[in-house]
Amino acid sequence: MTQSPIHGMSRDECWQELRGHEFGRLAFHLAGEVHIVPINYAIDREVLLFRTAQGNKLLGVVMQSDVAFEIDGYDSAQAWSVVVRGRARVLESTDDRERAEASRLRSWVPTDKDVFVEIAPEEISGRRFDLDKPWEHAIPLR
């Protein structure tokens, strides 16, 4: 029997990947639609933090806190993906804002993003995928 090319990741492995990166995609609901946007983030304790400004992303997480967040990557042998499902909340207390300010979280885009949002994970899952000759499928670099 051949071994499956798909491998589940432990919770600790998922957190290790989350802590080792700072860019992912946030999925949220707004006006009956699902939206997905790229964000940079930081980990503080066992929550994700991101900054935002007034707009659809903030409106979406305020109106419906149920969100999903995903990061992924690959190399010559494997691809991987980590998905976090949880609740988002705007950090409004002085203590919460000071904690977010003290984290590694910095906006990548030089715009005013003065709202801190925390995602408290309710479920974390991850998988690794053994790749079959990925160089045969890769798009040539220009």
TrEMBL record:
<protein>
    <submittedName>
        <fullName>Pyridoxamine 5'-phosphate oxidase family protein</fullName>
    </submittedName>
</protein>
<dbReference type="InterPro" id="IPR024747">
    <property type="entry name" value="Pyridox_Oxase-rel"/>
</dbReference>
<dbReference type="InterPro" id="IPR012349">
    <property type="entry name" value="Split_barrel_FMN-bd"/>
</dbReference>
<dbReference type="Pfam" id="PF12900">
    <property type="entry name" value="Pyridox_ox_2"/>
</dbReference>
